[in-house]
Specification:
Layout (H helix, E strand, L loop, with lengths): L17 H14 L7 H7 L4 H13 L3 E3 L5 E3 L2 H8 L1 H21 L3 E7 L2 E8 L14 E3 L4 H8 L3 H15 L7 H11 L2 E4 L7 E8 L5 E9 L9 H20 L4 H5 L2
Antiparallel strand pairs: 1-2, 3-4, 3-8, 4-5, 6-7, 7-8
Helix pairs in contact: 1-3, 2-3, 5-9, 6-8
């Protein structure tokens, strides 16, 4: 390897990994296509030939990342989601959160979900249904643009400045948009209130109430959210739901952050 001369600017080394790039391109493409794609459709969208991706498809299918459907389309399996859940920090978060979420659903008669940021998306990591015959819930494993989710704003509001800047840069890169002009004001209001309560950006008649779940540094790693719906005979008011949700988020924070943040968690 050539040694850098004194005074010579350093360069970032890049190494070509065409096979890995092709495999990742296929996974990222199929992640955006819930109905799956045929070999020729993938080749066309990736600007490659069918022969270029054929061996990649065989490998990914053999390893269990994709599966071939009855109509010759390929679709993602749940393996990637299972891998995320098995990641130790994520697994611990789910294990600690689920019992609290199940109790919360029974206390409020509402569904609830736990969302985390993955790039510029909020991904639903855990979800519990309301103990009723009817209700509204968010699908486990689904994702939504962070700017279209109360969870996204709550996590942003409770990130440190460095993490928030990186998150917004990734959102700008992936969406091609600029953050809302009133974003800083919106996030300050959330921090002051300690939570977000707003009409759903995607579903009329649903009010999202969301609280942060904090790590040991006091930064949000997740958001616990209830998509509140008003029943004709409401047994639990929105104000009561807020208090139940506040205590549940504080309990999960205390479980994962340790004793040094329990006083902060109780004030969420």
């Amino acid at each position: 390897m050539a040694r850098k001369k004194a005074g010579q600017p350093s360069k970032t080394l890049t190494y070509a990994t065409p096979a890995l790039d092709k495999g990742l391109d296929i996974l990222e493409l199929l992640a955006r296509q819930p109905g799956g794609l045929t070999k020729s459709e993938m080749a066309r969208q990736l600007s490659r030939t069918v022969s270029e991706i054929f061996r990649m498809l065989l490998c990914l299918e053999r390893r269990g990342y994709i599966a071939q459907l009855a109509d010759d389309r390929y679709s993602l399996t749940l393996k990637l989601f299972q891998m995320v859940q098995e990641h130790p920090p994520t697994e611990r978060l789910i294990v600690d959160a689920l019992p609290v979420m199940q109790r919360l659903a029974h206390e409020t008669l509402q569904s609830c979900h736990l969302g985390v940021l993955e790039g510029a998306q909020v991904v639903i990591l855990a979800q519990t249904n309301a103990p009723l015959n009817i209700g509204f819930y968010v699908k486990l494993g689904s994702s939504v643009d962070l700017m279209e989710a109360a969870s996204g704003y709550v996590i942003l509001a409770h990130q440190d400045e460095e993490h928030r800047a990186r998150t917004l840069a990734e959102w700008t890169r992936s969406s091609g948009k600029k953050p809302p002009s009133d974003l800083d004001l919106h996030l300050r209001r959330i921090r002051k209130a300690g939570h977000e309560k707003s009409a759903s950006y995607l579903v009329k008649g649903v009010v999202n109430i969301s609280f942060p779940v904090l790590n040991h540094q006091g930064s949000a790693i997740a958001a616990l959210t209830i998509p509140y719906i008003q029943y004709s005979e409401a047994a639990v008011s929105a104000e009561q739901v807020i208090e139940f949700l506040r205590k549940a988020a504080a309990e999960i924070t205390a479980a994962i952050a340790g004793p040094e943040l329990r006083s902060i968690g109780s004030a969420i």
